[in-house]
C-alpha cells in the first residue's frame, strides 16, 4: 500500500494541473444596470421610463442623426463583462418577447420568434461595447436580415406595446451558446399612444383658439401624461376622404369642418403641434399664437409617459379674433375711469355713472356672446 501512494498522489496532481486551464477559461456574460445606456437626443427622466423604446427613439435611430455631430442618434449601448471568449467566437444580442432565445429553435427555423439585433465580432477584447438599434428591435424578426440604416420609418408607426428581453450570449463558430447568458428585461417597445379624446370644441380668443375636450374613458388612462393640440389652416379634403366634425362650440360658420392635414384616428405630424397641457385630468388649453381672421382646424391627442402621441381626435374649427375687454368697451362708450380703485374723474351724478357702467357691461357681454 505505501508503494502505491506516491503514484496516486502523482495522478491526482496531474488531474489538477490539466483541470486548471479549463477553470480559467470558464465562459460567462454578465450585464449590470450601469452597463446599459440609452443614448438619445433629449434625455428622458426616470419618471418617463428611460429604458423603454418610444416612437421618437425609433424615428431618431436614422442615418441623418448619425451623420450630424450635433445630433445624437438613438442607440442602446451595452458594455457587458465577458469572460472566457475565444478566437472565432462572437458576442450576439438577441431580442424576444415571451420566448426563451437560448433555445436554438427560437433563433433558427420556421417557428423561430427571436431576432438578432447586435453582434461584436471580437468579444475576447478587454472592453466589449455593443450598440443595439432601437429600429432593429422595432422591426422584429421580419427585419432581422436588414441593416438598421435600411429599415424604413414605417416600422415606427406600429401601434404596439411589447415587453422585450435582450439575451447577450457567447456563440462559437458552430452556432452553439457557450457559458452563461446575460438577460436584460427592463425594456419595452412602446409605440402605442393613448386613446383619442372626444367632444372637441374650439373657443375663440385673440391670436389663439381655446381647445376643449373630454378625456377618453377607454384604454390605459394611467399611461396618459398630458394632451397635445395640433393646428392647421382649415380646408381641403383628407387623402382618405375622412372629414372632421361639423361646427362645434366656437367653430366659425357652423358648417362642415375639414382639414387635409389633420385626419381623425391617424397619428399626428409633430410639426403641427400648437399647444400642450400636462396631466391626465386636463380638459382645456390655449393654443400658441395664431393669426386673427384665419380659420383653423384643431385636433387633440393624448400623450403617454414616454412621449408617444396617440391618434387624433375629431377636429373642430375656429377663427381667432380680436377680443374687446370690459374696460376697452367702457372706454369706447365714453368712460374715462382707469378701472382701478384709485382712478377718479370729474364729479357727476352717482346714479348716472352706475347706470352707464351697467349698460356698458351688458353691451360688452352681448358682444362676447355674439362672437362666441
Which key features would you list for this structure?
372 residues, 27% strand, 18% helix, four-stranded antiparallel β-sheet, single chain
Task: Explain what the structure shows.
Helix content is 18%, strand content 27%. It has 372 residues and is α+β, with helices and mostly antiparallel strands. It folds into 3 domains: 26-190, no CATH class; 198-318, Immunoglobulin-like (Sandwich); 326-371, no CATH class. A hairpin with a 2-residue loop joins strand 10 and strand 11. 33% of the residues are buried.
Question: What is the element layout, followed by pairings?
Answer:
Blueprint: H1 4-24, E1 28-30, E2 36-39, H2 55-59, H3 63-67, E3 75-78, E4 81-83, E5 90-96, E6 115-120, E7 130-132, H4 134-139, E8 161-171, E9 177-190, E10 198-205, E11 208-214, E12 224-233, E13 273-278, E14 284-286, E15 296-304, E16 316-318, H5 326-332, H6 350-371
Q: Tell me the total number of β-strands.
A: 16
Assembly classification: single chain
Tally of helical runs: 6
Report how far the terminal alpha carbons are from each other: 112 Å
Helix fraction, binned, reads 10-25%
Low-confidence stretches: 11-24, 241-254, 341-351
Largest sheet: 4 strands, antiparallel
From the alpha carbons, calculate the radius of gyration and give it in angstroms.
Answer: 32 Å
The backbone outline, from C-alpha atoms, is elongated
User: What is the average per-residue confidence, as pLDDT, rounded to a whole number?
Assistant: 83
Strand order of the largest sheet: 6-5-8-9
Order of helices and strands: HEEHHEEEEEHEEEEEEEEEHH
Helix- and strand-based class? Answer: alpha+beta
> Hey, roughly how much beta strand do the residues contain?
25-35%
Amino acid at each position: 500500500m505505501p508503494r502505491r501512494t506516491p503514484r496516486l498522489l502523482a495522478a491526482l496532481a496531474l488531474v489538477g494541473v490539466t483541470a486548471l486551464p479549463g477553470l480559467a477559461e470558464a465562459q460567462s456574460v454578465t450585464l449590470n444596470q450601469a452597463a446599459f445606456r440609452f443614448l438619445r437626443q433629449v434625455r428622458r427622466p426616470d419618471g418617463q421610463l428611460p429604458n423603454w423604446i418610444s416612437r421618437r427613439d425609433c424615428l431618431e435611430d436614422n442615418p441623418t442623426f448619425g451623420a450630424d455631430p450635433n445630433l445624437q442618434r438613438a442607440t442602446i449601448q451595452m458594455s457587458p463583462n465577458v469572460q472566457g471568449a475565444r478566437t472565432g467566437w462572437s458576442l450576439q444580442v438577441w431580442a424576444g418577447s415571451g420566448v426563451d432565445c437560448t433555445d436554438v429553435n427560437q433563433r433558427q427555423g420556421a417557428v423561430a420568434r427571436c431576432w438578432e439585433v447586435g453582434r461584436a465580432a471580437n468579444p475576447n477584447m478587454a472592453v466589449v461595447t455593443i450598440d443595439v438599434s432601437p429600429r432593429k428591435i422595432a422591426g422584429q424578426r421580419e427585419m432581422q436580415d436588414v441593416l438598421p440604416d435600411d429599415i424604413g420609418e414605417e416600422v415606427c408607426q406600429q401601434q404596439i406595446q411589447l415587453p422585450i428581453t435582450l439575451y447577450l450570449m457567447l456563440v462559437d463558430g458552430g452556432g452553439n451558446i457557450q457559458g452563461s447568458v446575460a438577460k436584460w428585461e427592463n425594456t419595452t417597445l412602446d409605440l402605442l399612444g393613448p386613446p383619442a379624446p372626444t367632444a372637441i370644441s374650439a373657443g375663440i380668443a385673440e391670436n389663439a383658439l381655446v381647445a376643449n375636450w373630454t378625456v377618453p374613458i377607454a384604454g390605459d388612462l394611467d399611461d396618459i401624461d398630458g394632451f397635445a393640440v395640433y393646428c392647421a389652416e382649415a380646408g381641403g379634403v383628407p387623402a382618405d376622404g375622412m372629414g372632421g366634425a361639423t361646427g362645434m362650440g366656437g367653430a366659425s360658420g357652423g358648417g362642415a369642418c375639414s382639414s387635409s392635414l389633420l385626419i381623425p384616428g391617424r397619428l399626428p405630424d409633430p410639426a403641427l403641434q400648437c399647444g400642450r397641457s400636462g396631466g391626465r385630468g386636463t380638459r382645456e388649453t390655449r393654443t400658441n399664437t395664431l393669426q386673427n381672421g384665419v380659420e383653423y382646424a384643431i385636433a387633440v391627442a393624448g400623450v403617454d409617459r414616454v412621449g408617444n402621441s396617440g391618434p387624433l381626435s375629431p377636429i373642430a374649427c375656429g377663427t381667432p379674433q380680436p377680443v374687446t375687454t370690459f374696460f376697452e368697451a367702457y372706454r369706447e362708450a365714453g368712460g374715462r375711469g382707469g378701472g382701478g380703485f384709485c382712478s377718479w374723474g370729474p364729479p357727476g351724478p352717482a346714479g348716472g355713472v352706475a347706470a352707464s357702467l351697467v349698460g356698458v357691461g351688458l353691451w360688452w357681454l352681448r358682444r362676447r356672446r355674439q362672437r362666441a
